[in-house]
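User: What would this chain look like folded?
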Amino acid sequence: MFSFALKNIFFYKSRSITTFILTFFSLLLLIVYVAMMDGSHESMLKNALKVYTGAIEIYQKNYRDLGGNEYLINQVDTIEKALLTIKGIEQFTSRYETYGLLSSKENSAASMVAGINPDKEKHMSQLEVALKEGEFLKQNSGNCLYAGIGLVKKLSINVGDEVSFIGSASDNSFAADLFKLCGIFKTGSAQFDGATSFVARQYFDQLMYSQNKASYINIKPHDLSQVDEINSQILKVIADDKESLTWKTLMKPMVQAMEVDSVFGYISISLFYVVIFFVIMIFGFINVSSRIREFGTLRCIGLSRGKLRLLLFYEIFILSTLAIIIAAPIGAYISHYFSVNPIVIEGMSEMYKDYGIVSDELPFSFNLMTITWNIALIYVLNFLSIIYPTSYINNFKALEATHHV
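Assistant: Here's the prediction, encoded as structure tokens.
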């Protein structure tokens, strides 16, 4: 039956070429489209994580729900020593966050003031890259303040100006100091830029009595796809009164937004494949309808209905396989190439650079498992397209089919 199907493919050339072309371009488009969509989501996530939120963060339980100094992490050095034993972690740093009032000569504004380790923060986030004016913090920056551009506008201050700070220290005592604005950053997030400022921990810990304490510990893995495995290892080495959360929880709104975007993306491409499916099925139906007498003759000489189904199956299988063998490597190469060399959207680069963080690149995602299910989907669609034509010809009796016009 296989050799018979092969002969039919060469005999009905127009139908074979059409099926081959449709299958080839359908698979090629599917691989490239899904790679671009997944790549854009990965890029969106990586850019968001680079701003400030970590891929994994360790908290004292109830800190995220209740907050307050009662739920700070104590003995940070103990946890950091344990993290050094876990494979897959690229970098980690502790942060101490508090809320207070910043006042200039003219205005006042509430701000989250965070004590950070500037050297580690360069590897953990892109706060340094978001610099718009002045300079980024250093370990010995002292009372230097690194503030968001929105917050600076609220306070009506410039680099070099002083602002007073009033807040609560880690032991709930009164804390106050004068900060000098040394740098201004812009991430593109109005909410973040309008209410956030940073001070080097070496100085801030003395003011807030927060030595060896932290609001949370931020962790950056080597491979973002391994966060669940790394997080499971972290949970084994931290105390029961601590919790370790991944970006899937920390950035739940973004996760939901990406899921919705994926759904609409798949719906859009599904409409295209519904059209392709019916085109292939119609061509198959037309081809089968013109061959009813041929199939009737085959039935008369002893070919069963099952054999006819097998014959048509082999025909679509051969054509699909040939198209896939050519399209899959091309699609995989395109996906891999643009995952290594992302597309740069010309004309938008300057606008993206103005935000300091958001990338102007559109990377693709190269994933062999994704390409495999793309191939499987095309196979399924092509096989489904012959079900109705096969049922149609098998409704004819053998003698009736031989007289069909």
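The longest helix spans residues 13-51. If you want, I can go into more detail on any region.
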